[in-house]
């Protein structure tokens, strides 16, 4: 069967991964979604509000074994059920109506984690780190930079894998007998990825909103404004507004695809001279101040470590820095006795929370511009893949887009110039 084969291919090169996967599969208790401790600490949420938010999350989204779909969110519950839970089947496998379960936990959770934050048991060994789905940012897509990926984008990543990383290809085997069944499994993983992303975005935004809008005494740990959408209309409005916007962002993805002008796309019938001219023009663009490609990828396209971080690592670095500042502040105030003991106790408790949340994360890494000469492109090596990378950049990273940022707005480069850059990059990667 394809899924067993693809998994065995991945684990063959990582003996430790195999043992981790076995440990992850031996569940002695029902797994739970881990609360976003970093967001809660940043928002200085009191325990009561944290518990109330956790109850809302459970009511709206369910559990890893029993996912739920909130009203207004367009997700297929049947597909989510296939991907959720422990690996196995409901019903007899010989029966036509049997239902496979646990696809995400079987194939993805070892790296991405049950909650989807990219913090699975094997994540610490991986460079780059597994994607954090809950941030809502996806690199490899065909849509505008700030738009969500389409289902096809997510599916393409599953089928192609991400070359040069631990993310394997889930391409269908040539001798696969039940194509429809395998397609449905891919659809289930796509749907569950979206579910984790929607759930994670909602949780993070809800934490920030509650922290900003509801009064609480952080020192005393009390509030006169509990968060209870079931009984408070204003609280329910917060939930509805956040869910509506997040759902709309995902629903609009199909309309946000960057579609190149067919008249400008290079054809297979181009002459050798036309290709050579395009490569030469692309080389000039690559080295120009207009594109600044060499600032990151270097004159020869070999890439380099950058001073900047991607969004995921920058958030972690900022969080760890703020935690250090808080710790130094507590030590200073203790020595100077400039603050009440109650305030110090509250900040010490916050420091413990911040450290506990950070300990669950990986260490922050600087971004690295890709070596274009290897011929290995993580987002796909077809001309249209490179076109999308150059046109819109790579979401969440220092890689900027050179094309139009949205319909009706001119980009730094024309589509023809972007295709010339594609030709040049392909010429140095062979």
From TrEMBL:
Keywords: Electron transport, Heme, Iron, Metal-binding, Signal, Transport
Gene3D superfamilies in the cross-refs: Cytochrome c-like domain (1.10.760.10)
Occurrences of domain Cytochrome c (ranges): 80-197, 277-429
PROSITE patterns: CYTC, PROKAR_LIPOPROTEIN
GO molecular function, one term: metal ion binding
Short name of any one Pfam family annotated for the protein: Cytochrom_C
Region forming the signal peptide: 1-24
PANTHER family tied to this protein: CBB3-TYPE CYTOCHROME C OXIDASE SUBUNIT FIXP, CYTOCHROME C4
Protein name: Cytochrome c
Organism: Aeoliella mucimassa
Taxonomic placement: Bacteria, Pseudomonadati, Planctomycetota, Planctomycetia, Pirellulales
């Amino acid at each position: 069967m394809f899924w067993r084969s693809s998994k065995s291919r991945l684990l063959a090169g990582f003996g430790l991964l195999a043992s981790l996967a076995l440990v992850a599969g031996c569940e002695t208790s029902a797994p739970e979604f881990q609360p976003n401790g970093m967001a809660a600490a940043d928002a200085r949420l009191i325990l009561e509000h944290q518990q109330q938010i956790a109850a809302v999350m459970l009511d709206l989204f369910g559990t890893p074994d029993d996912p739920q779909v909130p009203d207004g969110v367009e997700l297929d519950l049947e597909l989510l059920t296939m991907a959720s839970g422990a690996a196995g089947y409901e019903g007899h496998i010989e029966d036509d109506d049997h239902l496979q379960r646990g696809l995400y936990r079987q194939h993805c959770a070892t790296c991405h984690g049950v909650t989807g934050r990219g913090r699975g048991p094997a994540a610490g060994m991986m460079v780059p780190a597994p994607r954090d789905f809950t941030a809502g940012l996806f690199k490899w897509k065909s849509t505008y930079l700030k738009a969500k990926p389409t289902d096809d984008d997510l599916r393409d990543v599953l089928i192609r894998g991400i070359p040069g990383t631990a993310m394997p290809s889930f391409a269908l085997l040539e001798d696969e007998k039940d194509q429809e069944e395998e397609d449905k499994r891919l659809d289930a993983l796509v749907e569950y990825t979206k579910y984790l992303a929607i759930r994670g975005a909602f949780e993070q935004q809800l934490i920030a909103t509650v922290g900003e809008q509801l009064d609480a005494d952080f020192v005393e740990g009390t509030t006169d404004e509990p968060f209870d959408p079931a009984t408070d209309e204003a609280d329910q409005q917060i939930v509805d507004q956040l869910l509506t916007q997040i759902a709309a962002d995902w629903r609009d993805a199909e309309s946000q695809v960057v579609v190149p002008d067919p008249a400008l796309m290079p054809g297979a019938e181009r002459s050798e001279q036309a290709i050579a001219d395009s490569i030469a023009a692309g080389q000039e663009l690559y080295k120009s101040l207009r594109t600044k490609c060499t600032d990151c990828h270097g004159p020869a396209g070999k890439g380099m470590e950058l001073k900047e971080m991607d969004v995921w690592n920058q958030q972690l670095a900022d969080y760890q820095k703020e935690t250090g500042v808080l710790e130094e502040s507590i030590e200073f105030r203790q020595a100077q006795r400039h603050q009440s003991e109650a305030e110090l106790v509250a900040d010490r408790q916050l420091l413990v929370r911040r450290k506990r949340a950070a300990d669950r994360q990986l260490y922050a890494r600087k971004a690295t511009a890709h070596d274009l000469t290897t011929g290995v492109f993580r987002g796909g090596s077809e001309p249209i893949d490179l076109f999308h990378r150059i046109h819109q950049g790579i979401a969440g990273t220092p890689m900027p887009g050179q094309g139009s940022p949205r319909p009706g707005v001119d980009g730094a480069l024309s589509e023809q110039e972007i295709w010339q850059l594609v030709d040049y990059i392909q010429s140095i990667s062979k």
